[in-house]
Amino acid sequence: MQQEEKINTSNKEIDFLQQQFWAKYERLNEKCEKSFSNNKYNETIKIAKRVLLLEKAIGYSLEFQNHLSIPHLNIGKSYVSLGRFLRGLVHLNKAIKYDDDFKNFFQVNYYLGLVYQKYPQYGSAIKMFKSIVEEKPKEAIELDWFNISLYNLMLSLVEEKNYFEAQIYLNIALKNNELDDFYLLQFNHYMGYVKYQLGCIEESLKFYNRALQYTDDLKTVFRIRHALSTIKIIQLEYYSALYQLIKVYPAFFDKGLRPKFIKQFVKILKHIVPFFSTIY
User: pLDDT tens-digit profile of 222-256?
Assistant: First the structure.
């Protein structure tokens, strides 16, 4: 009888300790999410490492091993955000190892894609981003990872000069009716560039002009107007090329943009004013 009471007491103590342990685990992970969302990456790493230390405190536990993916993910993505990509890669690979139920699939593959994109290993980056894009998002948070992965997939394909495949994924992106202005700008802008590279000049003009609807940022507008101006020069429409440049004349007063503005302006004038080419 006394032995049964001791066993019952022991079991209650174990249950109490486990409850305390998991409460602390959840509390620390919540702190990680909050510090990461506030861009406090070093703080996030410190907190996540405290989560990993919990295993040593309770000894080896298969149940806890299955929850190690989250702290490794928090450490990995924090290192990536700090530009320490190799350290990030180590922890992201561990996050995959312990992610038995694939709850962190979108985040882990996205940050791995960023690591490969940085080095650059675009083939591996494309593989990571495609793995996300080819999954159908079921929740709003998954849709966010889908959109940003689609954006980075497009960047990687363009860097690889794989314009045909980039066009395929950009078409998928632009069919989404719930895109915000950032993605509408980026996807239309890059579709303009891809269409230009594929020799579809008129379509390129259409997408560049559409991109202008979603931004008033001087540098971005200048970049798009400059591309439109270049296309008009190719089409021998020099006054139209000049018009595109005049539309973004404030770029002349920006120290960073002025050299490119003047170079394009002179290039156009050489075609419009014959004697101008003898001066420059």
Answer: 999 999 999 999 999 999 999 999 999 999 999 99
What letter would DSSP give residue 39? T
The pTM of this model reads 0.80
Is 184 within 8 Å of 168 (Cβ atoms)?
no
The DSSP letter of residue 135 is: S
Helices (H) and strands (E) in the chain, counts: 15, 0
Return the closest-CA partner of residue 207 out of 218, 220, 226, 194.
194
- Categorize the per-residue pLDDT at 91 as very low, low, confident or very high, splitting at 50, 70 and 90: very high
Among residues 185, 184, 170, 180, which one has the least CA distance to residue 217? 185
Contacts of 223 (CB under 8 A, 6+ apart): 189
Identify which has the larger pLDDT, 52 or 75.
75
Domain boundaries, the chain: 11-103, 216-280
- CB within 8 Å of 189: residues ≥ 6 apart: 207, 208, 211, 220, 223, 224
For residue 97, give the amino acid letter: K
CA distance 8 to 83: 52
Instruction: Tell me the C-alpha distance between 134 and 262, whole Å.
Output: 44
The model's pLDDT over 123-180, given as tens digits with 9 standing for 90+, comes to: 999 999 999 888 866 666 677 888 899 999 999 999 999 999 999 999 988 988 888 8
Instruction: Out of 1.25.40.10, 1.10.760.10, 3.40.1080.10, 3.40.50.920, select the CATH number for domain 11-103.
Output: 1.25.40.10
**Position of tokens 């806890």?**
64
C-beta neighbour count of 10 within 10 angstroms: 10
Look at residue 105 in the predicted model and tell me its pLDDT: 84
